[in-house]
Every structure is written in structure tokens, then in C-alpha cells.
Task: structure prediction
Amino acid sequence: MRFYEFEAKRLLGKHGIPVPQSGVAQSAAEAERLASEIGCPVTLKAQVVSPAALKAAGVKSAASPAEAKREAEWLLQMEDGGRRPRGVLIEKKAPIAKEYSLAITYDGVRKRPVMAASDMAGDIDEIAEQHPHRVVRRHFSALFPFSDYLAKELVAALGLRGAELTAMTPIVSRLAQLFLKYDLTEADITSLAKREDGSFVALDCRMDMEAEGRRRQKAILEELGIQPGDARAPREQTAFEIEAAKIDAEDPRGVAGPVVEFDGTIGLVIGAGGGSLTALDAVRKHGGRPANYAALGGNPSVKKTQRLTKLVLSKPGVEKIAVISNVLSNTRADLVARGVIKAVLELGRDPAETITIFRIPGAWEADAVKILRKYGVEFCDRTVSISEAARRAVEKMRSSGC
Amino acid sequence: MLKDPAMAILIHRDFTFIVQGITGREALNFTRECLDYGSKIVGGVTPGRGGRDVYGVPVYDTVREITAKQKVDGTVITVPLAFAPDAAFEAIDAGIKLLVIITEGIPRKDASAIIEYADLHGARVIGPNCLGVIVPDVCRFGSLGGPAVDCRKAFKPGIVGVMSRSGGMTTEICNALSQAGLGESTAVSIGGDPVVGSSYAELMPLFEADPETKAVVVYSEPGGPMEAELARWVTENRSRLPIVAFVAGRFMDEMPGMSFGHAGTVVEKKLDSPADKIRRMREAGISVAEEIGDIPRLVKERLEAAGAAGA
Result:
């Protein structure tokens, strides 16, 4: 879960990392008032979380409260993955002598947290790509408590000495400690500025909390006013996706999600995790246009499969579905067959026409075949690959003119 | 001296293991399945349930009660996620050297801590969020393949080492290799999380040293640096083994930040991207299958090419 920058800065401030004097405005008028309270010049930042919006540079500066009002008006209209920004962060702008950057994440190769620092501002990966000699890194432990000397070594490796070294070390140390404390997967200060008086201030930052960590981070999330359901996906869920999530949540037997809507014509009742990724790629590879993604698994009830299938077939323009999964051991193919057939019949459609292919090999496939044969639906066993099943499904779409 | 007819990596015919969390619903199932398959499960642990038994496997309150009495080579950890680090530390402290962690949803911080603790004690972790390891017809260590009868259909003894970030796709790919008459030397479900104990590159030397393994198949997904690490390993070590890889979720390149499937499956950075992974692996001489159904054919082609070059 991506934090809005104003939230990330509250975390920094709470842990003793200096941040500019600031406020968050929800309207242009409020921006004007805050700008005059804080004192101009100010920086204005649209509070967004989607990757596209973050790239779109929603950052302005204003020399007067009136200018702040105008800029805020524009920033508040920005698009953030189907949402509006969560306000505008207004910060005091002060002269700076030099900029650095810090970044902490997990290294999937070494399997340890790693901190990096640069004597340039910006995204550490981009700096590392263009100026590799200007980035220093140091791994640390998620098992043992963080020790300040690790931060000191990193800062020293960056070439800092004297007062600069002693001023930056605690900032790095605090950032590493809050990274561990809050189950963060990313804690970056992309602009750590040295003011003219020699002190440091975090000007730009971004933070991500691991979804899996949210359960045990309730206290801090509550403190920041972040609701448990606030997922902050790259884009807002569609009505179709919200309905699918409801179907999944209302019945604990098996999983249907995450269901994602696309604008294609072939409905996909696919599973499980890797099988779904493979099936969706295969349908596209053969020229099919998927109407959705799903990840059916964990032995879903007949009812759940039936409701999901009905939902997929209710999408305008979706006449046919493909039911494809990897070889399954714990999901009963016969129950999936019953679910999809029921859904198709309830919609008054012909299963043989509507279900292009049913490829779920594994336990209980013999029972599935019995049901499918009765309705004339083509079944593929384990000798037919996921890609071949997808090819046949797309071929049937074509030959029927869909 | 007689050569062991069933060479493999990580596990073998006499491999003994325990199940931590053995009284859980899923653990009950796969314990029975493993026993049916012929695996040697010498005990189970669930605190407060000591003294019971599960399909004849004695249940204890602590791991040490078992390791004090007999040799234990491995453990399958399938406890609720809040207890996973504790279970792993207990196993490592009791001297167990191979851990399969099935539990899903363990935060990265905990996974990293478990792996570091294992490293300090010379133990290896497979997973988290994996299904374990299988040597067809010899030993099944974890929950790959479901009921023994289905498991025997999908996995056949053979020459291909398999590593997969998806448990379900481990079975899918092995099934295809078995259908094609190639079979598997050992298949490892390495886990779908962003931080896992054993990566492709870390398992490669084991396959390299196993005379039964003649080729390796890798199933990969968007997210993480593991494929780049494998490409680098192959380039630096001049592996004798032809490798065929498959990268699922190519459509995700168009959807940065969206998460599908496993926790580690998301495109945020350049290294996460399927296109980048495919390019790096191809540059290292790894064959990347365009379609999942192409894998067995590509393995055969690579084996023939290697045979022709060796002759």
C-alpha cells in the first residue's frame, strides 16, 4: 500500500527526521489560507498514489497565497487512477545548499533489507543506472536490531565527513528503523536536502507498506486515518470488480479473486494463480481479447463458480467463456463444471455454444466429463496444454463470428 | 559400491521429515498424501496436541521431543502465519537443515529474518508460499500434486529438474514433461513471495551436481530480480545444463503496479518486467518458451543439440 506523501512525511516527522513546515489543503481557498499561514514561497504537491499520476509531476511552486490558490485549483483536478487527489500538500520552501537521496527496500537476491544513498536527488534505481559510481549500498538485518554504525558506514561510503556525517547518520538510521518497524517495502527520501545552515530536511519522499503487514500495523494506520479497506490500487475498482469481490467475500469456500475487468469479448473463468496468468497470456497470444482476469482456486463451491460465471457473462458483448486451469489436485473439477453449466442455463443460453472449452484436468475430472458431455461441452484433459486449450477457445470465437 | 538408482537434489529415499502444524486441515490432507506416496514422516508438532497421532504419525508439543530421539532431515511448516517465524526458529534451533514453508502471507520482514537465521545455522529454506519438493516415485516433501494417485499421474521419474514460482504450475509443467516421456529428476516449488529462501540460481549448483539431471525447466512470473540472477549465474558458471524457461503474465507489462496471483507478482521496476526477464535469460542462452505447450519440445531440442555437440 502506497502512502500519500503527507502521510509518509508524518511518519518521518514522528521518528525525528526533519520535514518542511506544511499543511494539506482540500480546496483552493484552504490552499490560499495555508500558504499565507506557512509563508511564501511554498511548494504545492497533488497527493496521488497511482504510478501514472506520480509520473505526471503534480508539483508546483507559488510565490504568493493568490498564486497558491490558482495552482491548487489545477492540482486538485488531477486524475489519479480514476480518483481525485487526496488534497494538496503545501510546504514551506527554503534555500538549499545540496541534495542527496536515500532509499531502503528488500533485495530479493540477498533476501535482506538494503539501504542505498546517493549525492544526487532522485529515484535511486535511475541514478544507479545513469551514474552507478554515485550510489552506495549496504545490506542490513531484519533479524537483529538496527545499529547506528551501519548508517554511519553508508554515509561515510558516500564520502561525507565531519558535521555532515554526524548530521546525516541519524537520519539514515531512523529511516532504516521505521522501515523495519512498519513493515515497509520501500522507504525513500528522493530529495534529502542540506539547508544553508548545514541541517538536513526531507523534501520528497515515498513509502510503501506491505499488504501482508497491514494486519499487525493497525495502530499506526489508525493514527494516520487510513481505513482497512483503503487498498489504493493503481486504478479504482470497476462496478464489475466490486461485484466479483463481493461474490468472493460472501462465500468462504474457495477463492475467485482478484477479478480484473478488461474490455475484450471472451469471458475467462480461469485458475489458479500461475494457471490464470498463463491462460490469459495464451488467449491473447492466439488473438483473443479477454473480458476479464480471475483466479479461481482452493476448491470453490458450486455457487461461487456459478455467480462468477454469471457475472462474467453479464458483461455487454461477452457471448462466450473459456474455462481453463492448470492440472489441479485440490479443486474439484466436477464442482466447477456444475457451477459454470448452472450459470449458463440460468441465463437461458446453450452450454455447448457458450462454453468454448473446459480444461481442468486433475482429481474428479471423470465426474466433470460426465456433466460436460451431457451438455455437449468440449473437455480437455491433461494431454492438452493450456496454450492449446486457449487456441481452441479463440478459434471457436472466430468461427462463430464473435 | 552400488550407485544409488535414485539420485536427486535436496531429498532422497531415506529422507525423514516432520510436519509443523500437522493438525491443521490442509496438513492433515497432505500428511496422508505423503504417507501414501511413501514418504517417511517421523512426527508432527502442534502445541497442546502432544500425545495424539495423525494417520499413525505421532504428534508432539515441541520439535526437540522428536529430534532428541531420531534423525530428522527436514520439516514442512504449515502453521498460521503469525506463528511461522517461531516455528521456523524452533526447527532451526533443533538442528533441522531443510525447511519447506508452505504458509502464505508471511510479511517480507519475517521471511528475511527466518532466512538469515537459517543461513547462520547452515540450514536451507524453500518457500515461503510454496508447495515443497518431490522426487518422483521416491519421496514427496510437502503438498505438491495432491492425492498420491494424482501425484503419480503428473510426476514421473526422469531427467528434467524443475523450479517454479507457482505450486500449481509445478504440477502442470511436470505433467507435460511426464506426458512427453521426459520425466523429472526433482521438482521444486520455490515459492511465490518476493523474498524466498532458495532462488533458481541458488538451486542450480545442486542440479548441476546431480548426474540424473540432464536439463532444467524454470517457471517464472513478473516481479523480482530472480530471473536476472539466474541469467547472470548461467553466464558466469558455464552450466552444462540446457535451461528452458517460461514467463507467465506477460500482459502485466501493460499494467504497472497492478498485482495478480502471488504476492511477488507485480511490475514496479524494470527488473520486474517480463520483457526484461525474457531478454536477459535469452542473452544468457536460456530458451524461453513462447507458449507453455512448447516446453517439452524445446527441452528435447536442447537435449538433442547438446547430444550432437557432445558426440
About this structure: The mean pLDDT of chain A is 94. The radius of gyration of chain A is 27 Å. Chain A has 15 helices and 14 strands. Residues 162-181 of chain A form the longest helix (20 residues).
